[in-house]
Amino acid sequence: MAAAFQPHPIPWTEFPTECIYYLYFMTVVHLVAFGVGSAILAVLPSKQPGTKLRRICRFGLYNGLLLLVGSIFNGLWSCLIWDRLYDSTDYVLDFIPFLPIGHWALDRPWGDARGRLLGLSLFQLQLVWPLFAAGNWGATTVLYRLMRRCRRLTSAVEATAGCRFRSMPHAPGPPRLTTSVMRHEALTTMERSAWPGSGLDFRFIAHGSRVHVDFFCHSLSLVVAGRSEAASRRRGHDFTRGVPVRQLRGY
């Protein structure tokens, strides 16, 4: 004999647990959706190489954000709506952003018990669902657009920095040590005084880029070869007129 169905409102202390429940059960659904969507995008025609891969990556990003934001809205639904506007038996999650609530949630059996509405009709409950669904889709879209915009800004900064690096004159000097090229995983804030007279403004931040700076390689090669700065100046190498810097490559 099944235990009597005695629902209780879900307290806010259980909000993280409700979010985890959503992630646990809905991850499979989103993985299937990603597989089907990727297959459809892969067969669509494209004029430029790499377009299909970019489409799939963008779809995967949006799909993942939809899953994460959906877990938050499911926690809100559990703490605000369930057992306050309606009850459903064997409750795990009733909010799905692409499936309106209906009899499928209210008619789940628990012995002889069924779900019930608490002071409103099913139609009125279904009018509440679009508010959560719109918030879910809207927040996902906003986050997606912000991430895309940040990525475009980062690419633009890297491209601008690359143009400035390429525009600098390469001064003559001893052979460079190619094995000693210094790679930075992030281009942090750099002051103009780092290279006097170069005319470059490095007051920006571009995350995830790799910078090949030949200035350090050139200085190191001078030390290894035993050549002094004065000897280099006699050969016409002027350190104050600019620093030979390789082309900036963004990864």
Q: In which order are the strands of the major sheet placed?
A: 3-4-5
Largest sheet: 3 strands, antiparallel
Q: How many distinct folded domains?
A: 2
Quickly give the structural class. Answer: mainly alpha
Distance between the termini: 63 Å
Provide an overview of this structure.
The chain has 251 residues and is mainly alpha-helical. The radius of gyration is 30 Å and the shape is elongated. The protein has helices at residues 15-43, 51-80, 103-106, 122-166, 214-225, 229-234; strands spanning 86-87, 116-117, 182-187, 206-213, 249-250. The strands form 2 sheets. A 3-stranded antiparallel β-sheet has the order 3-4-5. It contains 6 helices and 5 strands; from the N terminus they run ααβαβαββααβ. The N and C termini lie far apart (63 Å). The protein has 2 domains: 12-159, no CATH class; 169-250, no CATH class. The protein is 50% helix and 8% strand. The longest helix has 45 residues, at 122-166.
